[in-house]
Automatic annotation (TrEMBL):
Swiss-Prot/TrEMBL keywords: Signal
PROSITE patterns cross-referenced by the UniProt entry: PROKAR_LIPOPROTEIN (PS51257)
Domain of life (superkingdom): Bacteria
Record InterPro entries: DUF306_Meta_HslJ, HslJ-like_sf
Protein name (database record): META domain-containing protein
UniProt key word Signal: yes
Domain DUF306 stretches: 26-130
Leader sequence segment: 1-21
Highest classification ranks of the organism: Bacteria, Pseudomonadati, Bacteroidota, Cytophagia, Cytophagales
The organism of origin for this protein: Echinicola arenosa
Length: 134
C-alpha cells in the first residue's frame, strides 16, 4: 500500500510539472476572426478580419471597412485593449466593424488551444474567437 501511495504521489507531481508550462505568447502570431459575439457576419466576411500584435503594446488589424490600430496589454490569461481607432470610411460592413472593435475593447480574458484563441468579457461571455494565421 505504501508503494502504491508513493507511486501515485510521484505521478501527481509529474503531472503537475508538465501542466504548469508557460502560457502561450499570443503576440508572436497574427490572427484571423472565426466569430464575433452578436455580429451577423458570414464566414467570408469574418475571414477578412484580423488582429496583429506589434512592438510596444501596439495592435492593429483589418476590420470590414478600415484598418484599425490601438494598444493592448496582455499576460497569462488577461487582456486589455485601449480604444481602437479607424480611418472611418463609409461602407456596408460598418455594423460588423463596430461589433468587432467593441468586442475587442470589452475583452478581459483569453484562452488559447492549439491554433485558436478566444477572448471573454468580465462575465465570461465569449467576445471574439480567432484562428492563428502564422
Amino acid at each position: 500500500m505504501k508503494l502504491f501511495n508513493a507511486l501515485m504521489g510521484m505521478a501527481l507531481i509529474s503531472l503537475s510539472l508538465f501542466s504548469c508550462g508557460e502560457p502561450e505568447d499570443i503576440g508572436k502570431y497574427d490572427w484571423k476572426v472565426r466569430s464575433i459575439n452578436g455580429a451577423p457576419a458570414t464566414k467570408e466576411q469574418l475571414a477578412k478580419l484580423t488582429l496583429e500584435f506589434g512592438e510596444g503594446q501596439e495592435v492593429s488589424g483589418q476590420a470590414p471597412c478600415d484598418q484599425f490600430r490601438g494598444k493592448a496589454v496582455y499576460n497569462k490569461d488577461k487582456v486589455k485593449f485601449s480604444t481602437l481607432y479607424t480611418d472611418t470610411q463609409a461602407c456596408e460592413g460598418k455594423i460588423i466593424q463596430n461589433a468587432y472593435l467593441s468586442s475587442l475593447e470589452n475583452s478581459e480574458k483569453y484562452t488559447t488551444t492549439a491554433d485558436r484563441m478566444v477572448f471573454y468579457d468580465g462575465d465570461g461571455n465569449i467576445t471574439v474567437e480567432f484562428q492563428q494565421i502564422n
